[in-house]
Amino acid sequence: VGNSSVLTCPPKSNITMVTWKISPKVGGPCTLGYRADQNKTDRTTCSDSMNWKFRPDWNPALEIRQVGIAHEGNYTCEVVAKEGNFHKTYHLAVLVPPRLALYCDGHGSPVCEAAAGKPAAQVSWVLESNSTPKEEGHDNGTVTVLSKFTAYSTNMTNTTCIVSHPAGNQSKSIAC
């Protein structure tokens, strides 16, 4: 999320026409098209964040700027060339790194929160704990995971929470 993504088409010489057919999960479908005989591009209902990365007659790659969850979906490039028609389909999945918070609850127990990640983060503790993480889904497809540390022994001073996620791992320590 927040980065740019570039999707490429099958590389062909003597391109006659290129069409990007975009079907996001949110919002309606849109297309970007290029016709070589008229050296003309057109678009239907695509947001401004989606456009040709380069000149389509040179390289018909699609660039999505500031990728958001709404961009998730299928992206198909159709290339018409002298050798035939070629298709390449991408399924764009957007990762959202969770926000990590570690705090002490009212009973002096450490609580680790991996907020609004996509997909849900895995939360664990450096020392063994019999904690069962709780997940809360949000309307935008993100998930908050909450884990309370329950110690087997009471003589510990520092606890470390580890959050594992495809967008990157994080850890924090606290003494309650």
TrEMBL record:
One of its GO terms (molecular function) is signaling receptor activity. GO terms for biological process: regulation of neuroinflammatory response. Residues 60-175 form the Ig-like domain. It is a single-pass membrane protein. InterPro entries: CD200R (IPR040012), CD80_C2-set (IPR013162), Ig-like_dom (IPR007110), Ig-like_dom_sf (IPR036179), Ig-like_fold (IPR013783), Ig_V-set (IPR013106). The keyword rRNA-binding does not apply. The keyword Transcription does not apply. GO terms for cellular component: external side of plasma membrane. Keywords: Disulfide bond, Glycoprotein, Membrane, Receptor, Transmembrane, Transmembrane helix. It is found in: Membrane. It comes from the Eukaryota. Its main location: membrane. PROSITE patterns: IG_LIKE. Belongs to the CD200R family. This is MOR1B protein. It comes from Ciconia maguari. The gene is Cd200r1b_1.
